[in-house]
Amino acid sequence: MSGTDGDLDALKARVEQAALGPSVEERGTILALADGLATVSGLPGAELNELVAFPTGARGFVMTLDEDKLHVTFLDPATGLSAGDAVSRTGTLISVPVGEALLGRVIDPLGRPLDGKPAPTTSEARPAERPAPAIIERDFVSEPVETGLLAVDALFAIGRGQRELIIGERQTGKTSIAVDAILNQKGGDMICIYVAIGQRLSAVSRVIDAVERRGDPARTLFVVAEATAEPGLQWIAPFAATSIAEWFRDRGQHVLIVYDDLTKHAATHRELALLSHQPPGREAYPGDIFYLHARLLERSAKMSAAKGAGSLTALPIAEIEAGNLSAYIPTNLISISDGQIVTSAQLFAANQRPAIDVGLSVSRVGGKAQWGAMKAVAGRLRLDYAQYLEMKMFSRFGGFGDAAMKARMAHGAKIAALLNQPRFAPVPVMVQIALLAALDAGALDAADPAGFEALKTALAPRIAAEPRLKALSDHPAKLSDADRALLVDLVKAVLP
Ligand SMILES: Nc1ncnc2c1ncn2[C@@H]1O[C@H](COP(=O)(O)OP(=O)(O)O)[C@@H](O)[C@H]1O
Ligand SMILES: [Mg+2]
Asked: Which tens digits make up the pLDDT trace of 95-115?
């Protein structure tokens, strides 16, 4: 029986090598399943946001940690799972692939393709939740994001690194404003990310279609968690998309991100919170909803020169009901943002496009980022326009006899007509400056507003063809009297 000794030796060696300490393998068990959420016992070492795996291959992440149990939000359908099934830790936090390869794509919040093309090849992944840049890593907002919308660029200028909320009732043009802003980045240095949360797929396809037809699809990315996606995917979408955006921001690039919309995101958060028995607070939202959106929007920033000088500008969208801006989520979001563009159902019904309520809208830091030349011509615009809207209300009770009043009403009507803009018709910043300079000089007093659309399109080539305006066009920081006069002359020449 040769070989026995050898076998014995091998056995001895194995026994000696065997680690005799307790072997730790964390396994949990599903206690209960609800819509998109599992209550799990065990897994004492699990961390918040850690990915866990189920025997069906489905994945989820740890949403809340209690002493004796935890709640896991599903990222895949829970089909085939039931109470008693095992859950295992993965040791990794929920993360998203980042990198150049994502541009031009439509993906879900985990980076999985939704556009029928192969999975994007990326070499890096980042956690969906990341800390916001510290104060010392930031710089002041000082460069504009041009939206091509006169009503925004002239009245509520947005700066790179700013968070400007777009808020209003449904069907008042909120998405359209954000999409027009994205389309206007064509040919520029901005990367655009549109995050769809809880929307119908048809609505998302319309946005994708608009960008493909009129925008710069190769520099745009869509992160989509539509209404029928797992609540966990909808929940993580804005965070994951922001991590993708930060990768560009941290390389010194400029990113515009649209969250459409955070009202639906708040509703998903409330649903998951109620299912996991967190104590409901105001309007049944859990107490951490403010912090949730604050830590998301804090990640928008203009970075300091030492940090590469990139920027992340956010346009979160929120929907309100019956014009109620003082509901819980709207007030939260308003206080977290650096201003809000309020769309009005009344103005929309009165055919003002975009239907921006000038009295309720504000941009708190954008003024510093507005071009000097724009400031020079837009200074009085807001007040004149607001006064006009007020007088118009009162004039319903009887006409104004006063000639001065009549003149101001006529001037206001011209402003309203100028600010009116169909979708997909961006007005370049130099054309905006020319129009406002002409308005200021009274050159539009006799003009028929019906011709303003044609005027806007005709002006761009005229301005481009004027060598004396080249310096101003390249950098509209200051408006000299000569340039101002030249712009007014160009407008007069184009007017019929
Ligand atoms: N500037 C505009 N000119 C013409 N139509 C517009 C304009 N802005 C929005 N609309 C139309 O109004 C409708 C609602 O716009 P949308 O942006 O989807 O609103 P919301 O996002 O507030 O629900 C859409 O049919 C859109 O085409
Ligand atoms: Mg919308």
From this structure: 999 999 999 999 999 999 999
Q: With pLDDT > 70 as the criterion, what percentage of the chain qualifies?
A: 96
Q: Is residue 211 located within the same domain as residue 276? A: yes
CA distance 286 to 159: 32
Q: Is 147 in the pocket of ligand 1 (CB under 6 A)?
A: no
65 and 85 in contact (C-beta within 8 Å)? no
Burial 10-46 (b: 16+ CB within 10 A, else e): eeeeeeeeeeeeeeeeeebbbbebeebbbbbebbeeb
**pLDDT of 1:** 45
pLDDT, tens only, 367-425: 889 999 999 999 899 999 999 988 887 776 666 668 888 888 899 999 999 999 999 99
For the cut 90, the answer to whether the pLDDT of residue 78 exceeds it is yes
Residue 22, in any domain of the structure = no
CA–centroid distance, residue 306 to ligand 1 (Å): 41
Parallel/antiparallel/unpaired status of strands 95-98 and 124-127: antiparallel
pLDDT tens-digit profile of 218-227?
Answer: 999 999 999 9
User: 165-191 burial, b for 16+ CB within 10 Å, e for fewer?
Assistant: bbbbbeebbbbbbbbbbbbbbbeeebb
Let me know: does 110 contact 96? Beta carbons within 8 Å.
yes
Q: Ligand 1: does its nearest atom lie under 6 Å from the Cβ of 172?
A: yes
Whether residue 112 is found in the same domain as residue 86: no
pLDDT attached to residue 67: 87
**Which tens digit of pLDDT belongs to each residue from 208-267?**
999 999 999 999 999 999 999 999 999 999 999 999 999 999 999 999 999 999 999 999
Give ion ligand 2 contacts, CB < 5 A: 175
Which of 370, 399, 417 delimits the end of a domain? 370
Give the single-character DSSP code of 209. Answer: H
What percent of the residues of the chain are helix, what percent strand, and what percent coil, each to the nearest 5?
A: 40, 20, 40
Do 53 and 157 sit in the same domain of this protein? no
The whole domain housing 44 covers 27-93
Report pLDDT for 277: 87
> What is the rounded CA–CA span in Å between residue 403 and residue 388?
15
Distance from the alpha carbon of residue 322 to the mean position of ligand 2, in angstroms: 16
Specify whether the CB–CB gap between 249 and 303 falls below 8 A: yes
What's the length of the chain? 496
